[in-house]
Amino acid sequence: MTEPTRLTLAIQKSGRLSKESIHLLKACGIQFQLHEQRLIAHSTSYPIDLLRVRDDDIPGLVMDGVVDLGIVGENVLEEARLERQQEQRAASFTALRQLDFGYCRLSLAVPNEFDYQGVQSLNNKKIATTYPRLTEAFLRQQGVTAQTVMLTGSVEVAPRAGLADAICDLVSTGATLEANGLSEQDVIFRSQVKLIQSQTPLPEAKQSLINKLLDRLDGVQLAKESKYIMLHAPTKEVQRVASILPGAERPTVLPLSYTDEQVAMHVVSTENLFWETMEQLKTLGCSSILVMPIEKMMR
Ligand code: ATP
Ligand code: MG
Predict the structure, then answer these.
(1) β-sheet with 104-111: strand ranges across
(2) Which pLDDT score is estimated for 116?
(3) Atom of ligand 1 nearest to the CA of 74
(4) Residue of minimum CA distance from atom 14 in ligand 1
(5) Which residue of 36, 127, 139, 268 pairs with 144 in a disulfide if CB–CB is 3.0 to 4.6 A?
(6) Could you tell me which residue ranges the ATP phosphoribosyltransferase catalytic domain spans (predicted)?
């Protein structure tokens, strides 16, 4: 008997990326049961097995071809790539999609009392970070010589603890920096989450499963960005209404019962409908204007 074809996808087991990774897979019709203790979750609705690991392990698993796919932040991915390149280990992967979540930036920050006059102020200083290679690459590019101190957690307390003069850490709102008396100075890397694929050649059946998954991901993304707009418009104003609606070159125009003076117009718009546009439509005599989210879409 031949092995059934199944994909393997590494996702973060628990942390900032887990919930959204799972949510996205579910939106693509991939159902599974997660058990706290289990490393692997088999999907019952798509031939895919999820490997649930620490996010730091995901780039290596993909680059070594242990799994077919991975969902991981670009910060972790790029740091792993630089580290593996230095060590002359496999460091390549194929980037499939940006997944539009997990946004953060890797920034240099210094204690509020530090007289920061630009990145040059970090010459000969100690910088605590979980991302030494990204940090060093940036400093090198800026012609700054500084020493990085690797810390895997609590980076923001390093200056106060006397371990470093500055830090290079992930920021999303800046609240953690502020709470620790630090001020953000230079953004060195902007990150979001990516779906990546191993460069190990796959049998056609597996590649077509990946392609089908990508189509579904694109459908989810497109739906997220789109709105379904319905309204009643004066029949004589259909052209003008269509010119105001975003992305409505060819609206569906339907007759209304018991009147010729008004029609119903339906539009799938790739932009949101702002209040100002709705007010403009109302001035043209439109009524019953509805803007609805779309759950799924396929072109
Ligand atoms: P693990 O136990 O899996 O190693 P972790 O503690 O390293 O988890 P998380 O804090 O869960 O990692 O963050 C995972 C990823 O979330 C980060 O690598 C980054 O890509 C993204 N992220 C988004 N916003 C932030 C933020 N404000 N701080 C840290 N990471 C963020
Ligand atoms: Mg981690």
Answers:
(1) 147-150, 126-129, 166-171, 104-111, 182-191
(2) 95
(3) 20
(4) 16
(5) 139
(6) 54-218
Q: Which residue has the tokens 């597996």?
A: 206
Task: Give me 143's structure tokens.
Answer: 């012609």
Distance between Cα 210 and ligand 1 center (Å): 26
Q: Which residue has the tokens 């902007």?
A: 190
Q: In this structure, are residues 127 and 164 in contact, taking their beta carbons and an 8 Å threshold? A: yes
Which ligand 1 atom is at minimum distance from the Cα of 15? 11
Average pLDDT over residues 116-141: 97
Q: Is the CB of 76 under 6 A from ligand 1?
A: yes
Q: Rounded distance, CA 50 to CA 42, Å?
A: 6
Q: Which amino acid is at 285?
A: G
- Which of 16, 171, 182, when mutated, tests ligand 1's pocket best, judged by the most ligand atoms within 8 Å of its CB? 16
At residue 271, does pLDDT exceed 80? no
Tell how far the Cα of 54 is from the centroid of ligand 2, in angstroms. 6
Kindly report the average pLDDT of the chain as a whole number: 94
Q: What is the 3-state secondary structure (H, E, C) of 183-202?
A: EEEEEEEEECEEEEECCCCC
Determine the distance separating the centroid of ligand 1 and the alpha carbon of 43, expressed in angstroms: 25
pLDDT at 2 over 80: no
Work out the pLDDT band at 231, boundaries 50, 70, 90: very high
Q: Whose structure tokens read 């009392």?
A: 113
Write out pLDDT tens, residues 45-85: 999 999 999 999 999 999 999 999 999 999 999 999 999 99
